[in-house]
Design goal:
By secondary structure, the protein is an alpha/beta fold.
Length: 375
């Protein structure tokens, strides 16, 4: 997610990121504008078209976010693409459902909110343009014109509403398709089936665009990119739910004592690849501390004892717990280490660093296994 998107800030408490496909739009719009009207393409107005599309997609996703909260979902991150948004929901609150866990009709209603918001905005913008006396050319193609930005505002919302009804996951039509499929299939299978259909539609759009309208190719690229994001999220979710901590926990790890001085602890940390350490007194675990916390304490207060600066409130897990439960505990307390215990004895640790590394490897392994079984 971070490799293919950049953060722009919070929106209604949700972290917003822009997918890199958005940065293809300025070049694409300038090129198509120049091809249609050589010598008349205008860079500032082309950039304004990009801004209009971004604002329309953001409004479309705000509708989804507000509706999701009414259904008891907690959106955490939204990645904006030029046609849709991919929402990541908060996994740290295990009692809250995911969209796929909703009854299928409720998921359909959640999916329809986005197109309805876009249609409402298109109607409002059309009414304003018409009232201003500039509505004569409003419904003539093309709807997106750099020389007519008010018309482009209406057209962008209209196209978002129409294209999002395509049965291509994760567009809203694809989410409706997934909801219908989930009536007879389990959620993971229904999602994979919807992603496969989405990839096929994306390929058809890209090929069709080569022989007709270049915008079809762009839509195909966006749909394919969004489907890959959702497929990757699905694979990670299967890893979270299906892998036990005993499969990924670190069993060869360093510990600190509460009686260690901070300088001694730093020396031990220098010779370890760990960033986080359990603090153990005898056979009892009494706290956790990070390498960064040791450094900060030394800079602020000078040498002291680990006991004075360690975190005494921490979560523990059992070896049979899933990666998903450990991940929720880590994010709920904004922690970076989970001790794994058995019969009140420390037998391993899971750190955020090794958890993300293990998740990536296991996700790729699961994907390769699935591709081998399908071939």
């Amino acid at each position: 997610m971070r490799s293919w998107s950049i953060p722009v800030g919070p929106l209604f408490g949700v972290d917003v990121r822009i997918h890199l496909t958005f940065f293809l739009l300025p070049t694409f719009i300038f090129w198509t504008d120049y091809a249609a009207h050589p010598g008349n393409a205008t860079g500032p107005r082309d950039m304004a078209i990009v801004g209009i599309i971004l604002a329309c997609v953001a409004a479309h996703e705000v509708g989804h976010i507000l509706a999701a909260r009414r259904f008891g979902l907690i959106p955490k991150v939204v990645i904006l693409l030029p046609l849709t948004g991919v929402v990541i929901y908060d996994e740290s609150r295990g009692e809250k459902p995911q969209p796929a866990a909703l009854p299928w009709m409720r998921e359909v209603r959640l999916a329809l909110i986005g197109p309805l918001v876009s249609l409402a905005l298109a109607g409002f913008a059309a009414a304003v343009v018409t009232a201003s006396g500039h509505g004569a050319d409003l419904w003539n193609l093309p709807f997106l014109q750099a020389r007519n930005l008010p018309k482009s505002l209406v057209g962008a919302n209209l196209w978002l509403a129409i294209l999002n009804l395509l049965p291509a996951y994760p567009l809203d039509g694809g989410r409706i398709l997934r909801a219908v499929l989930s009536r007879t299939l389990d959620v993971s299978t229904a999602t994979r089936r919807a992603v496969s259909i989405s990839n096929a539609i994306a390929m058809v759009l890209m090929i069709a665009g080569l022989f007709s309208n270049n915008w079809l190719t762009m839509v195909g690229v966006i749909v394919f990119s969004a489907a890959q994001l959702e497929e990757r999220a699905l694979v990670f979710q299967s890893v979270l739910d299906g892998v036990r901590l005993e499969e990924v926990m670190l069993t060869d790890f360093a510990t600190l004592s509460p009686a260690d001085t901070l300088e001694d602890a730093l020396q031990k940390a220098v010779h370890s690849l760990q960033d986080d350490f359990p603090v153990v007194r005898g056979s009892d675990m009494v706290g956790v501390i990070s390498k960064q916390r040791i450094l900060d304490a030394l800079r602020a207060e000078g040498n002291g004892y680990v006991q004075a600066v360690m975190n005494k409130i921490f979560e523990v897990s059992l070896r049979q717990d899933s990666l998903g439960s450990a991940f929720r505990k880590l994010t709920a307390r904004n922690s970076s280490i989970i001790p794994v215990v058995e019969d009140q004895r420390l037998i391993g640790i899971v750190t955020l660093q090794n958890l993300m590394h293990s998740m990536a490897l296991l996700a790729e392994s699961r994907k390769l296994q699935r591709e081998d079984s399908e071939s």
